[in-house]
C-alpha cells in the first residue's frame, strides 16, 4: 500500500516539476514519511520512476489486450473499443505516462526496455486485430505493420495537446478518432468522421 | 558562415550525445575554433540550440508553405506534396529537429515559443488546404481542426521510428503515408494504400 502511495505521489511530482527537479525528500514529504522509510521501498528516484512506468504499462496492456483478443467480437468492434480505451487511459493516468514522454530519459536503458517490451505487446495485439480484420475483408490494407504504426502514432499524439478544459470533450475526441482510425484501416462501409 | 558551421556541428553533437552532455568546448573543438571565438557568435549553449531550432523551422515552413499556398494546384495535389516534403525534410535534417524532440527542454520558454510560432504557421497552412479541399468536395471532413491534428501527429510519428537501414525505403514510406493521409481526409475516390 505504502509502495503504491509513494508511486502515486511521485508520479504527480515528476509530472508537475520534472524528474530532475524532484528529490527523494520531496517525494517523502508529499507522502508524509521520512526519506529513510522511502529508501526502505526504493533504492533511488529512478527506481520509483521505473516502477511507475512498468505498473502503468502493465495495466494498459492488461485492459486493452482483453478487448483485442476477444474473438467473440469483430475486428471493427475491437478497434473501436481499443481507440476508446487508449485515449481514456492515457487521459485518466497522464502523470504515469512515461513511455513516449521526455521523462523516460530519466530511466536507464534496461529500465526503458521493460516499458518498451510492454508497449510492444500492445502494438502486436493491435497489429493482429488489424491483420484479422483485413483477412475477414472488414478492412482494406496493403501494409499491416505500417498501418499499425500510423494508427498508434495518431492516437499517441492526442495526449500531447488534449486538455479537459478545451473546446471538445474526451467523448467527442474519441468519436472523431474512432472515425479516423476506421478510415486509415479502409473499414467498409467507409465511416463518416461525424 | 562560421555561425552556420557552429550550428551544424553543434546540432550533430546535441543529437548524438544529448544537450546536457555537450559543452561549449566540445562544440568549439568540433568546429576547430577556440571557445572564445565561439562566444563571439553565441552567448551560451542554449542560444546555439535556439538558433538551430528556429533556422530549421523557418526552412521547413518556407518550403512547405510555397506548396500549401500554391492555388494553381488542387488541395489533393498540395497534400500529396506536403506529405512528401514533411517526411523528407524531417529525415534529411533529423539532428536539427528540436520541436517535438526531448532536446527542446534545453530551451527556455521564450525560445521555445519562437519555434512553436513557426510550427503553428505550418499547422495553419495545412489546415487551410484541408478546409479548401473540403469546400471543393475533394475531401469529406466533419472536424477540420481535429483532422489537421490527427494528420500531423501521424506524420510526426514517423521520425521516431524510421531508419534508413530499415525494411522500407523513405519513398515507400511516403507512398503509404500519402495514402493514409488521403484516407483520413476522406479523399474521393478513396485511394488504395498500395
TrEMBL record, chains A, B:
Keyword Ubl conjugation among record annotations = no
Tell me what this protein is called: TetR/AcrR family transcriptional regulator
Q: Which PANTHER family match?
A: HTH-TYPE TRANSCRIPTIONAL REGULATOR BETI (PTHR30055:SF234), HTH-TYPE TRANSCRIPTIONAL REGULATOR RUTR (PTHR30055)
**Is the keyword DNA-binding in the record?**
yes
**Swiss-Prot/TrEMBL keywords:** DNA-binding, Transcription, Transcription regulation
The record's DNA-binding region positions are 23-42
Q: Which SUPFAM superfamilies does its entry note?
A: Homeodomain-like (SSF46689), Tetracyclin repressor-like, C-terminal domain (SSF48498)
Pfam families from the entry?
A: TetR_C_24 (PF17932), TetR_N (PF00440)
Ranges for domain HTH tetR-type come to: 1-60
Q: Which organism is it from?
A: Pseudonocardia yunnanensis
